[in-house]
Write the structure tokens for this entry.
Amino acid sequence: MYKHIGKRLFDILASLTALIVLSPLMLLIAVAVKCTSEGPVFYVQQRVGMHNKNFSMLKFRTMTVNADKKGLLTVGENDSRITDIGRLLRKTKMDELPQLFNILKGDMSVVGPRPEVRYYVNYYTTEQMQVLAVRPGLTDLASLAYIDENKILAACDNPQQTYIEKIMQEKLSLNFEYIRQISFGTDMKIIGKTLLKIIHRES
């Protein structure tokens, strides 16, 4: 019941409540992004969602304009494409807050496999494509395991290869682990652990 009905109801209530409560903070972030670097407030990227359909995922812009043309992966905290305010937003994960609109719309869920860009989904096997049977999420088990993914990639000789052959495979395994045990309790635990991880990173 939760997986098919309750989860969506929770997503609507949680995202709507969060948007109302966090709207002053999001307005301040929008002003800070706009005033500290040239370009739009939001970064919109096509990601692959449920049923293998593309959707426009929102983030506060943390990089210079057209930074994605220089590579899809962010390698290390000192990536020259990241703006000053962007580093703070990425560390606190506040750049992800606009995805609350994606959740309210139904593109995403609060908890679920993080959505990939089409480039990486094209590497999925037929079996791995089954991860697209559920809505992608704002956070999940893989997000917790790889909260410092950019640091891991920075230490690699070939970040792209490491991501495709190792990190992405491990993320997908964790995604399927989550899908097998979807429940309200599981989602609450993941949300709680995510908040604790973010707080720990800030301290």
Residues 2-36 form the longest helix (35 residues). The chain has eight helices and four strands. The helical segments are 2-36, 84-92, 99-105, 118-121, 141-145, 149-154, 159-180, 184-202. The mean pLDDT is 92.
